[in-house]
Write a structure and sequence with these properties.
The protein is an all-alpha fold. Helices cover about 80% and strands about 0% of the residues.
């Protein structure tokens, strides 16, 4: 690299990292937590005996999984104002990512719950537990261990997917790199730089995922 490129790289490093810490990570965390709550309720609705509720949940999952995330973000941010619903960029991104995480996460949680042997339910009922008590005390804790690897991977993917928020004017890390690129006209340098920061974030998260999985495996072995 030339001296000018090195200077640009060093000067842009802090703004990009700040944007990642201030917007990218919080956006991913908020969306993931809300999405997991939605995913849990959706999964429970899917396996419930009440058909209307199950059909609503299935329809929601079908819509979200069958359409591109970027289209969903555009509908929320650019489309809804046409019917009088105006949402600021950051909340619009949270809504879009939450709906996406909720739909995909619900399938993971549903599969994890269904993977628990029926004998676990029967043992709980034999002890006088209600269906809700059996779910809360025995089934969900075991299902959480089964679902953890897939859900952790989903969170790492979400961190990368937050770059799509740049398309609806959220000043997260990728949009910040676009703004800096427009100033210095060094797209290759700056986009590689932001890719390296994403790689750093995801590497740290992958390490945390591996430790979490080992902890669950240790408890399972015991």
């Amino acid at each position: 690299m030339s001296d000018r490129q090195i200077q640009i790289f060093m000067e842009s490093l802090l703004p990009l990292f700040k944007a990642g810490v201030a917007f990218t990570i919080p956006l991913a965390l908020i969306s993931f937590v809300l999405g997991m709550i939605l995913a849990l309720f959706t999964a429970l609705a899917r396996i419930s005996g009440w058909k209307p509720l199950a059909l609503i949940a299935r329809f929601y999952v079908w819509i979200i999984r069958g359409t591109p995330l970027i289209v969903q973000l555009f509908i929320i941010f650019f489309g809804l104002p046409k019917v009088g619903i105006v949402i600021d960029p950051f909340p619009a991104a949270v809504i879009g990512f939450t709906l996406s995480v909720g739909a995909y996460g619900s399938e993971t949680i549903r599969a994890a719950i269904l993977s628990i042997p029926k004998g676990q339910w029967e043992a709980c009922f034999a002890l006088g537990m209600t269906r809700w008590q059996a779910l809360k005390r025995a089934v969900l804790p075991q299902a959480a261990r089964v679902a953890t690897p897939s859900l952790a991977s989903s969170f790492i993917s979400l961190v990368k997917d937050t770059s799509l928020a740049a398309t609806i004017m959220v000043t997260e890390m990728f949009q910040t790199s676009q703004q800096i690129t427009a100033t210095y006209y060094e797209p290759l340098l700056l986009y590689v730089e932001v890719a390296l920061i994403y790689l750093l974030f995801c590497s740290v998260l992958s390490y945390g995922q591996a430790r979490l999985e080992r902890r669950f495996d240790r408890y399972h072995a015991i």
